[in-house]
Amino acid sequence: MRYAIAILATILTTCLIAAETVQTTPDTPTPCRLSKRDAVILGVVEGITEFLPISSTGHLIITNHALGLDDETPLVDASGRTMWLKPPSPEHPEGVPLTLKLAADTYIVVIQVGAIAAVVFIFWSSLASMLRGLAGHDAAGLRLLRNIALAFFLVVFVGLAIDDWIDANLFTLTTVIAALVVGAGFMWAAERWRKGQHKQPTKEPADLTPREAVQIGFIQCLALWPGMSRSMVTMVGGYFCGLAPAKAAEFSFLVGLPVLGGAAVYKGLRAGPAMISLFGWSEMLIGGAVAAVSAGIAVRFLVSYLQRFGLGVFAVYRVVLAIFLTPWTLDLI
Question: Is residue 200 a part of any domain in this protein?
Fold first, then answer.
């Protein structure tokens, strides 16, 4: 338990350091480039929170605000010309001007590649099993691949359908706070249900039925709400389908590979060139590398922790964080 508290305290401390950095230089205009310090902070927050059930997107929205990276003023280049995310065209004559917030939102999605790399390294044996299954040499690996595909498909379909609406309406501190509280209640209910079961689950992710995999995919759509946490809802879905906490986490990590990879490619293609022109390649590589290291540590910790204690402490953390953020949000109104 003390290790969980230490890691969660580290996350909060990192966010506070970011906030203190901005508060100590109130007269400094919002920068148009990402500093290496900011890249490291965002990489740490991304890596630690991506696979913990506390919402990486929510924490990164908070951190972006603390670092002053959520300015929505259209940016201009050195000659005073508007910088464009999407230049005006006959179909869209107004175009979409580039803002610091748009670039930062893209950055925090793209550096997820680092967290993906950590999971690939840690769970390579499961990935190899799926590859053998495709070749017809591993039936369990083929079933696992099927289950990941079924859990992945629905959230991609829904996410693509409402992506623009989510970007426009849900990437705020207020919606993150609400998701943190709702998600905590969801976790408490799932933990109470799990502990009320008379038989300890022994099912492996490969043993899920197609229907159960689709059910997890349906529940995973809740994670499109920033602050809810994709890993949390996937783990809770695994609980209800008969997976033990550690196995539910493992399935969550594996499902996260195509979900996060797809999001990174999609955002990268849409806004990556504009983001890189503003922030630069070196800052993106630094953020991704730091995210990979911190994600590897967090994943190892989570699997070990869940085997002993379950999700309870993370639900408490979510409520504490929501309470901590509420006065901050009221100041912004």
Answer: yes
Q: Indicate the number of domains in the chain.
A: 1
pLDDT, mean over the chain: 85
Scan for tokens 């099912």, then name that residue: 203
Q: Which domain holds residue 43?
A: 2-23+34-70+97-332
Averaged over successive runs of 10 residues, the pLDDT of the chain (333 residues) comes to 48 49 39 79 92 85 84 84 85 85 88 92 95 95 96 87 84 86 94 84 91 94 90 93 92 91 86 85 92 94 89 93 80 53
Residue at 312 is within a domain: yes
The string of pLDDT tens digits covering residues 233-274 is 999 999 999 999 999 999 999 998 998 888 888 888 888 888
| Closest-CA residue to 258 (of 133, 119, 52) | 119
Q: Please give the Cα distance from 165 to 169 (Å, whole number).
A: 6
23-45: b or e for each residue (b if 16 or more CB lie within 10 Å)?
Answer: eeeeeeeeebebeeebbbbbbbb
Within a domain: 80: no
**Phi (first) and psi of residue 94, to 5 degrees:** -80, -25
